[in-house]
Amino acid sequence: MSDFSAFNLEFFGEAARELAIKNATAAAAPRAPQQVFVQLGESRKNPNILRDNYAVPSFEIDDAVINDVVLGPVIRNKVVTQSIAPGTVVAKGTAIELVLAPAFELPGRIIPNGHQFFAEVSMQEAYNDFVRDDPIMRRVLERNPDPQRMSTEDRETVRERAANVTLSESAGNTVEDLVRSLHLARTMVE
């Protein structure tokens, strides 16, 4: 059985506790990928979501009730990868496979050419330590969507702001690698 002690959950009776653990374990179990169809356009579209040939209806959810009954932390997933590259024009009805994951837990090694310092650091930790409360680093990232085109001044700013990170001209340790990793952290957490 999984250990959920880190979530600081309160239960009313042993049966409620066992049911919550059973449901959480089942929800966390790996599942076979399913296709989800998403229509993009100028006007509101009715979703056409199918699961095993069952048309899944949409519902308006009362957030106050959800906040009342959720037994643990709400996990916000983000699209980590998709079968068709972002920005690619596709025909209406084209299936796009999405991989969703809790972005705050992902390690920096999910991207090639990231900085080695972040290989085993969670994106939440990288964001908190280098981006969240640093308006100067945030501006450097905003000015430099392509790290290869950074100005000398911005390179020096990154070196100063990340003084505890080893930077060199070796692959996996460059300023560009660091900025690429911080872009990933910001994208995954914000």
Distance between the termini: 33 Å
Q: Unreliable runs, pLDDT <50, ≥5 residues?
A: 1-8
How are the strands ordered across the major sheet? 1-2
Order of helices and strands, N to C?
HEEHEEHHHH
What's the number of helices? 6
Tell me the strand percentage band: 5-15%
User: How would you describe the oligomerization state of the chains in this entry?
Assistant: single chain
Shape: globular
Q: How would you classify the helix and strand content by structural class? A: alpha+beta
Largest sheet: 2 strands, antiparallel
Mean pLDDT: 78
Total beta strands: 4
Please tell me how large the radius of gyration is. Answer: 21 Å
Q: What percentage of residues falls in helices of 4 or more residues?
A: 25-40%
Describe this structure in words.
- With 190 residues, this protein is an alpha+beta fold.
- The protein is built from 6 helices and 4 strands.
- Helix 3 crosses helix 6.
- 16% of the residues are buried.
- The N terminus is likely disordered.
Labels describing this entry:
190 residues, 34% helix, 4 strands, globular, alpha+beta, two-stranded antiparallel ribbon
Task: Describe how the helices and strands are arranged.
Layout (H helix, E strand, L loop, with lengths): L13 H15 L20 E3 L2 E3 L6 H7 L7 E6 L15 E5 L20 H8 L4 H9 L8 H10 L13 H15 L1
Antiparallel strand pairs: 1-2, 3-4
Helix pairs in contact: 3-6
